[in-house]
Amino acid sequence: EVQLVESGGGLVQPGRSLKLSCAASGFTFSNYYMAWVRQAPKKGLEWVATISTSGSRTYYPDSVKGRFTISRDNAKSSLYLQMNSLKSEDTATYYCARPPYDYWGQGVMVTVSS
Amino acid sequence: DVVMTQTPPSLSVAIGQSVSISCKSSQSLVYSDGKTYLHWLLQSPGRSPKRLIYQVSNLGSGVPDRFSGTGSQKDFTLKISRVEAEDLGVYYCAQTTHFPYTFGAGTKLELK
What we know:
The structure holds two protein chains of two kinds. Chain A contains no helices and eleven strands.
């Protein structure tokens, strides 16, 4: 059974950093691109980042480019999202997902507030 | 960026009714490989999204065949035949043809 389990969320002040993790199981992690998608409270879905199987290619929307970094450790079947220079508008539930969106984690809440 | 326009924003239905949701993109979603990367997701209340349909018309694993997807280029439709209570929630279309990947704003399906 495919499972994606996120961790690392919490309350953080504006301008600070936070790193999210996603532990994958039930499939050959190294064979799949992976992604992060977020959802602000009571809002829709927003794609945040995608990473290739080897990690050599990464993709971001302008809203997070230069502040967020997606990475992976295939030996540990783990996906990461390093979030720097956080803003209040980054407040959201962050989901780890396997493209094209066939599996999702339960989500982890990130609140950026002073 | 590709803008995904979903209509209607909300639908009120009775169990057993059939409904359709429209999703229109601002650009063609046909990729250079000839495939169209348009997907449909359902987010039930308090849950993570679940993929229903991928590449326009392919049913996801375990998804009932009451769900069907059609369309091409820039115009797509999700049809739900014989709505059941478990179908309630917010439906999203999503494109993964062009970066940045984008989602529609969602269509909320509620009980009448």
